[in-house]
Amino acid sequence: GTIPPDKERAALQTISSETRRLSRLVRRMLDLSRLQSAENVTAQEQFDVSEVMLRVLVSLENKINARHLDVDTQLPDGPVLVWGDPDAITQVCYNLLDNAIKFSAEGSTMGLSITAKGGKAHVAVRNHGDTIPPDELAMIFDRFHKSDKSRSVDREGVGLGLYIVKTILGNLKENITVTSEDGVTNFTFTLTLA
């Protein structure tokens, strides 16, 4: 009897939404704890990073279509064999592509490319949307960091996705860079060619 009957549904929806958000936060924290564990040994095996990226892209097709995005893929004709942990790199690709979709201007084009040079595969994910200010760019990989714009746009996020990406790549002794100019944001990470 605390909540009037006409407001029960809205209150239950809020409770349900917050419960799901907390559940995601706990799951992300557990993932993070596992990644930072001293016992964490990252598997090193050969796999095709193009195949991983395309599989993740297909899994996000509904989100891409919902925002009416085009996807421009520039991938080599054959496989791009790299060393690493395919499950961890799947998570990296998912986090980067999911963010690119979320922060793309509706109806714009998202880019995905893989190039091989200097013994490394360079995997890039690009989107068109708001430019990330330089002071935000410096903190984008920090734990729990969310820019003010993303707080209103991305109610689902907890500010751990890019921190997890950076941690996974750091465990693999690889790196990631980001640029954001004139409405184009580009994340590029490296993997060692097999």
| Cα-atom radius of gyration | 18 Å
- Gap from first CA to last CA: 65 Å
The quaternary organization reads as: single chain
What amount of the residues lies in strands?
15-25%
Major sheet strand order: 2-4-5-7-6
Profile the largest sheet: 5 strands, mixed
* Average pLDDT over all residues: 85
List the secondary-structure elements in sequence, H or E: HEHHEEHEEHHHEE
Instruction: Please provide the count of β strands.
Output: 7
**Broad structural category:** alpha+beta
Uncertain segments are: 148-155
The coarse silhouette is globular
**Helix proportion:** 40-55%
Count, helices: 7
What does this entry look like structurally?
The protein has 194 residues and is of the alpha+beta class. The chain is built from seven helices and seven strands. A five-stranded mixed beta sheet has the order 2-4-5-7-6, with helices on one face. The chain has a two-stranded antiparallel sheet with strand order 1-3. Helix 1 packs parallel to helix 7. It is globular and about 65 Å long. It starts with 7 loop residues before the first helix and ends with a strand. 23% of the residues are buried. About 4% of the residues have low confidence.
Compile the SSE list and pairings.
Elements: H1 8-36, E1 45-48, H2 49-59, H3 61-66, E2 70-74, E3 81-84, H4 86-102, E4 109-117, E5 120-128, H5 134-137, H6 148-153, H7 161-171, E6 176-181, E7 184-192
Parallel strand pairs: 2-4
Antiparallel strand pairs: 1-3, 4-5, 5-7, 6-7
Helix pairs in contact: 1-7, 2-4, 4-7
